[in-house]
Backbone:
C-alpha cells in the first residue's frame, strides 16, 4: 500500500508537469494558427492570380530526389503518437522507393523517429532532437532554409512533411503534406469564397 501511494505521488507530479508543458505548447499553437492560415491564404491567392511572376516554388518537375521531414517526440508514454508517425513514414518511403534509396533524404525531428530511421537502415540528415524538445524560430528557420536552397538548386525535387496536426488535447490529426513545390489548391478552406478576394497585385 505504501509503495502504491508513493508511486501515486510521483505520477501525480508527472501529470502536473506534463499539463504545464502542454498548456504552453497549446497556447503557442492556437495563437499562431490564425496568422499561419491567413498567410497561407494570401500566398495561395497571390500565386494563383493572373500575374506574370514565376515562382520556382510552384515549379512541378519529375521527382528524382525527395526529402521527407518527419516530426515525432523525444520520449514515450504518448500512446500511438510516435507509432502512427513511424507507420506513415514507412508507407511514404515505400511509395518513393522506385527513385532509389540514395535519393530519399529523411530529416527526423525527435529522438523516437530518429531511432526508427536507423532501424530502417537509413541515414538521418542531421540531429534535430532539440527542435522536438524546445522548438525555436531560429532552429526551424535554418532547417527550412536548407530545404529551400536545395530545392532551388534542384538538389531536391520534392519536400514532404509528416506530422500530427493539433486540433485539441484529445485529437491530433496525422498529416502527410507536400511542403515544396507549393500547391496552389491546398488551401481550399481559405479560398472557397474567391469572389471576396481581390486578386490585384503589383510585384517588384
Residues:
Amino acid at each position: 500500500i505504501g509503495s502504491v501511494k508513493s508511486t501515486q505521488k510521483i505520477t501525480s507530479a508527472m501529470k502536473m508537469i506534463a499539463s504545464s508543458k502542454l498548456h504552453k505548447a497549446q497556447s503557442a499553437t492556437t495563437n499562431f494558427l490564425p496568422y499561419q492560415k491567413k498567410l497561407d491564404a494570401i500566398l495561395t491567392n497571390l500565386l494563383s492570380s493572373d500575374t506574370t511572376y514565376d515562382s520556382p516554388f510552384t515549379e512541378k518537375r519529375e521527382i528524382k530526389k525527395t526529402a521527407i521531414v518527419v516530426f515525432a517526440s523525444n520520449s514515450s508514454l504518448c500512446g500511438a503518437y510516435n507509432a502512427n508517425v513511424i507507420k506513415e513514414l514507412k508507407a511514404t518511403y515505400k511509395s518513393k522507393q522506385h527513385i532509389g534509396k540514395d535519393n530519399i533524404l529523411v530529416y527526423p525531428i525527435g529522438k523516437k523517429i530518429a531511432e526508427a530511421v536507423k532501424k530502417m537502415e537509413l541515414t538521418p540528415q542531421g540531429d534535430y532532437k532539440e527542435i522536438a524538445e524546445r522548438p525555436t524560430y531560429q532552429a526551424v528557420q535554418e532547417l527550412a532554409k536548407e530545404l529551400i536552397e536545395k530545392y532551388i538548386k534542384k538538389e531536391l525535387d520534392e519536400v514532404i512533411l509528416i506530422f500530427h496536426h493539433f486540433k485539441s488535447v484529445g485529437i491530433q490529426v496525422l498529416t502527410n503534406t507536400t511542403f515544396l513545390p507549393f500547391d496552389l489548391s491546398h488551401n481550399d478552406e481559405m479560398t472557397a469564397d474567391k469572389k471576396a478576394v481581390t486578386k490585384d497585385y503589383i510585384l517588384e
Notes: The radius of gyration is 20 Å. The beta strands are 66-71, 104-109, 158-166, 172-180. The chain has a mean pLDDT of 82.
